[in-house]
Amino acid sequence: MSREEILSKVKEAFVSVLEHSNFQLTDETTADDVDGWESVTHMMIITEVERVFDIKFKLMDLMNMNNVGDLLNTIESEI
Amino acid sequence: MEFVKKLQESIKKHFDHNVLCINNTFYKYSDFAIEISKIRAAITDTVEDSEKLIGLVTNDDLQTYASIIALWLEGKAYVPVNPSSPIERNIQVFGMTETKYVIDSSETSLYNDYTVINSGSLADVKVNLEPKEISGDQLAYILFTSGTTGLPKGVPITFDNVQGLVNAIDAEPEFNLVPSDRCLQMFELTFDFSVVTYLFPLLGGACMYTIPKGAIKYFYIFKLIKEQKLTVLTMVPSIINYLRPYFPEINAPDVRYCSFGGGALHSDIAKEWSDCLPNCKIFNYYGPTEFTVYSGFYPYHKETDTKNHNGIIAIGTPQKDTLYLVVNENNEEVDIGVTGELCLGGPQITPGYWKNEEKNAQSFFVRDENGTTVRYYKTGDLCFKDEDGDYLYVGRADFQVKIRGYRVELAEIEFHAKAKSDKKVNMVALDITNSLGNAELGLAVESEEFNTDMIFDYMKTQMPDYMIPMHVRFVKEFPHSINGKINRKELKTYFDIK
User: Fold this and answer.
1) What's chain A's Rg over C-alpha atoms?
2) Residue B244 contacts A where some CB pair is shorter than 8 Å
């Protein structure tokens, strides 16, 4: 799966949890940049991403995930 | 005031220790003392002596914590407002407390209509931690909790109340913070649980670790536990609910205390969490804002102390000087094993809701006990006491009734009924038993008769049909019970339904 395809699926996960698509996702995007992305919705996004890609993140990876780029890197390493 | 004096001594004694870790930056008690002194000087320069309730914008920085201590040394109370809350709400809070001065460390303060002390840019002064004379009935802080219907509810806490809390925790041999402790401080300072997570580390000379705004709370806490080797955790149970899928990856041997509060702790997850903390004592604390954070705890242990009711861990016994009383609807004590509303008495009880006599009449009562008068706060929590003297939590005592099998909150019906009514009159929703023994909903309106079509049309847009009252009665003056509460029982007699 290409990085673009991964990003597109990740964006779908964000839209389904946050119930809006009023944001751009780039490698540098953080929770501060997206309306409604905070601690609780983050947990829901993580669960949704795990479901879509059929993977299970490690707590160590989640702990150091600071932006969308980190999320994509971790997904790439898991699938 | 003894605890303020002890804070002064602890800050002085631990000058070379860390006091706070904020976003990976460490601050020492000596830095803290300097900030406190600067803010104090600004307070004495700016604020009239008679002004006791000072606004505090709760940023995540050294100055905000220093402001609390500076205000206490000056014998003043902090009225915290969260910078993430709507400014209208915060201004409403300051309006209710008639606050004129606000301490704000933000680069640009939004509180233009107030005299703002910008704690982020104050001139250097000599360190001065000597507390002023404080009388115990002066206020130490006022917190506002969300009322379900409109205006926030203010809970004032006095210096005596805080001293009561400190005495109770000091009397507990099982819990004792030391300067080498590294403590989680995950709470927003507008939330009363924060009082124990900054006060006890400061008194013990320990270091607090905060959660930066914008961080993903759950993972950041784990990161702190792992990388900073936290030793003391104070949390709400929802934190571990979110971390639960990752428990197998968590092993934190450095944690020696883990205290829970602010919600029901379930026994299954408590056991699993306990497995992650092999060297830890777990405390299940109970206590409302109105009783200065904590009123007592149950010492949980996954093998030996697992007492629970319907899977909810026991809340244990009252702490030093605190009295628990379980009562029926007439505020009479019930027997052991019988469920009733838990009431709390003792030195930590708030003087009463801020300028809210009606709510005070409902929530507090006095009782003669062995020749002395004891004032009790009604928690709204249903509990019972078991044979060992432990208290077990059952649920909330809110006005919740069952209509056609649905759980209905009567307060919600009242809220929507009043919302669009152009007549500002009192309305009470009641459950009335019909001749078949089923409950139906009635709406009592304290007024002369008027047309209610608009109210009902609006309610139908807001609530499912089973929540729409089927009966309306107009009552010129609602009957009240002796303690000032609306007498719902008598009000029900106005509804003669088949």
Assistant:
1) 11
2) no
Contact A63 B223 (CB under 8 A): yes
Alpha-carbon gap: A64 to the closest alpha carbon of chain B (Å): 8
Q: B interface mutation test: which of A39, A40, A45 has the most B CBs within 10 A?
A: A39
Structure tokens at B277: 């903390």
pLDDT in tens, B375-422: 999 998 889 999 999 999 987 776 667 777 676 778 778 888 988 888
Task: Return all residues near B169 (Cβ < 8 A) that are at least 6 apart.
Answer: B175, B196, B200, B294, B319
Closest-CA residue to B209 (of B444, B442, B24): B24
Distance CA B233, CA B260 (A): 8
A2: closest CA of chain B, how far (Å): 27
State whether residue B222 sits within 8 Å of chain A by CB: yes
- pLDDT tens digits along B291-341: 999 999 999 999 999 999 878 899 999 999 999 999 998 999 999 999 899
How many Å apart are CA B155 and CA B312, to the nearest integer?
27
Q: Quick check: B154 and B356 in contact, CB under 8 A? A: yes
Residue B7 in this model has a pLDDT that exceeds 90: yes
Strand partners, B117: B103
Distance of residue B217 Cα from the nearest chain A Cα, in angstroms? 6
